[in-house]
Amino acid sequence: MQFKEPTHCHLWQKGILTRDDLDFESIASEADDSHFERSVVRCRRCGQRYLFQFYELVNWRDGNDVMTTIYVPVEKDDTESLRTVRALDLAQSTPRLQWEGDTLTWVGR
Ligand SMILES: [Zn+2]
What is the edge-to-edge ordering of all strands in the sheet holding 24-32? Predict the structure, then answer.
């Protein structure tokens, strides 16, 4: 899936991001369990909405669990239709903010 670039958001404009740069408020929680979490959040500085997703693939190849935490910039109207999107599909969409270890990077910027 391809989403619109959130060019007005400070998160998009900044080069290197840290946890301190995230300034989100939660709008709606769509799923929440120990291996899968998804919610709609909004940037406090510009109002841009993001779909937050945490997903853990348990016992993936020799017991190495795969965890991904991402933020996908979405339009207000998108959130309803994205409710049924599979976790793996959303995890492939661009652009997206993704945690890789301690680093927060844009994929597809
Ligand atoms: Zn913003």
Answer: 24-32, 36-43, 49-57, 66-74, 96-100, 103-107
Q: How many angstroms does the Cα of residue 50 sit away from the middle of ligand 1?
A: 10
In a domain, 2, yes or no: no
pLDDT of 80 reads: 86
Residue where the block lists tokens 């693939």:
57
9: CA distance to ligand 1 center in Å? 4
What is the distance in A from the centroid of ligand 1 to the CA of 63?
37
* Domain, as residue range, for 59: 10-107
Is residue 29 scored above 80 in pLDDT? yes
Residue at 3 is within a domain: no
Mean of pLDDT values over 10-32:
93
> Residue 65: pLDDT above 80?
no
